[in-house]
C-alpha cells in the first residue's frame, strides 16, 4: 500500500472516503462533483482509495493530489481498502461513498455534520439513495416510508459515521470482501448503544455503474456473508431456519444466473469459517426484524402474494 504525501493545513470536520476498482470514468465523475461542492470549504477533506486498478485510475488520482489524499493498494482487497482510507482520515466524521456515488449538494453535507454534532445518540446517518433523476432506491436497508427516523441499517454508497465509533468496532469486516459488510457494522453500532438515523434530506446520488457487477459476485458474497452473520448472531433454532432460507434463496439466484459453481463455493466457505455465537441484547434483535424477514423464505413468499 502506498499513500500520497499531500497534507492539507486545515483540520477537517468531515472526511469523505471512497473506493475505486477499475472504474476510472466514475472516479473522474465523482471527483468533479466533489471538487465543485468543496471549492469554498475548508472543513471537508477527500480521501480516494484505489484497489490496484489497471485502467489508469492511479495515474489520474496522482494528478489530483493538490486537493485530495490518495491511497494505492498493491492488490484488490475489496472493502478492506476502505479501511486504509478510514485510518488516514482526520475528520471527526466520515462520509462513505462508492466511486459511482456523490452527495447531491452542500445542504446534504451540512445536514450530516449538524446531525452528528447535535444528536449524541446517533452513531450513523443513513442517507437517501437516489438515481440521477431523483428517484429513491428501493432497498430493505432503509425505511420504506422515506420518512426521517430510526433505521435498521444504511446503504454503503452513502452514509456518515462517527470516526471514533467506526474505529472502535474495527472498521469494515475485511473478511467479507464485498456485500453485507454494512449489516455487520450496523449491528456493532447498535450494540455499542448508538442509533442509526435515516434523513431523507441527506441525499446521495448512486449512478449504479455496471462495471464489476458480475453475476458470480451477487451469488457468492451475499450467500456466504449472510450465513456468516446468521451463524454469529442467531441461536438455534431460528439460525437453522434462516440458514435454510438463505441457502434456498441463494440456490434460486444461482440457477437464474447459471452460477452453481459460485454457489457451491459460497456454501462451503460459509460453514468452513469458525464462528462463535454472540448473543445480542433483546432491543437489538428487535431492531434486526427487517434483516430476519429479508432472510426468511416464508416472509419473502408472503410479500410476493
Automatic annotation (TrEMBL):
<dbReference type="GO" id="GO:0016757">
    <property type="term" value="F:glycosyltransferase activity"/>
</dbReference>
<feature type="domain" description="Glycosyltransferase 2-like">
    <location>
        <begin position="15"/>
        <end position="167"/>
    </location>
</feature>
<comment type="similarity">
    <text>Belongs to the glycosyltransferase 2 family.</text>
</comment>
<keyword id="KW-0812">Transmembrane</keyword>
<keyword id="KW-0328">Glycosyltransferase</keyword>
<keyword id="KW-1133">Transmembrane helix</keyword>
<keyword id="KW-0472">Membrane</keyword>
<dbReference type="InterPro" id="IPR029044">
    <property type="entry name" value="Nucleotide-diphossugar_trans"/>
</dbReference>
<dbReference type="InterPro" id="IPR001173">
    <property type="entry name" value="Glyco_trans_2-like"/>
</dbReference>
<dbReference type="Pfam" id="PF00535">
    <property type="entry name" value="Glycos_transf_2"/>
</dbReference>
<keyword id="KW-0808">Transferase</keyword>
<feature type="transmembrane region" description="Helical">
    <location>
        <begin position="233"/>
        <end position="255"/>
    </location>
</feature>
<protein>
    <submittedName>
        <fullName>Putative glycosyltransferase</fullName>
    </submittedName>
</protein>
